[in-house]
Design brief:
By secondary structure, the protein is α+β, with helices and mostly antiparallel strands. It is 17% helix and 39% strand. It has two helices and five strands, in the order E-H-E-E-E-E-H. A five-stranded mixed beta sheet has the order 1-2-3-4-5, covered by helices on one side. Strand 4 and strand 5 form a beta hairpin. The longest helix is centred in the first third of the chain and has 11 residues. The radius of gyration is 22 Å and the shape is elongated.
């Protein structure tokens, strides 16, 4: 897990409430303005079809930090029972019939 942050205390406080899953890849807290931070929780999962990890933001919070504690959060900070985000590797993509170049030209009325 890597942590990129302007204030490590903010990231640590958020993770103390949420929990620290085994697939946590990154937790970052970026100062947006004054004492307001955007906290992103990145998880890493592997799909069965691909042998490369998928990293994505699973949770994101806007928090107000007063220098000692988190005063407010949107959404509310509360322990997350299962921080594992499912990766749907067998998505059914919409299919369409691929026409030949000749069909496209003849149907377009260009000729």
């Amino acid at each position: 897990m890597t942590t990129t942050t302007d204030t490590p205390e903010v990231t640590a406080l958020v993770l103390d409430v949420l929990g620290r899953p085994s697939n946590l890849w990154r937790a970052e807290a970026k100062n947006v303005f004054d004492n307001c931070y955007r906290v992103n929780i990145w998880l890493e999962t592997e799909t069965s079809e691909l042998s490369i990890p998928v990293r994505e933001i699973a949770h994101s919070y806007f928090v107000i930090y007063d220098g000692e504690k988190i005063v407010r959060s949107n959404p509310d900070l509360e322990p997350i029972k299962d921080l594992k985000k499912k990766v749907y590797s067998k998505r059914k993509l919409p299919t369409r019939e691929i026409k030949s170049k000749a069909e496209v030209i003849s149907n377009s009325g260009v000729l």
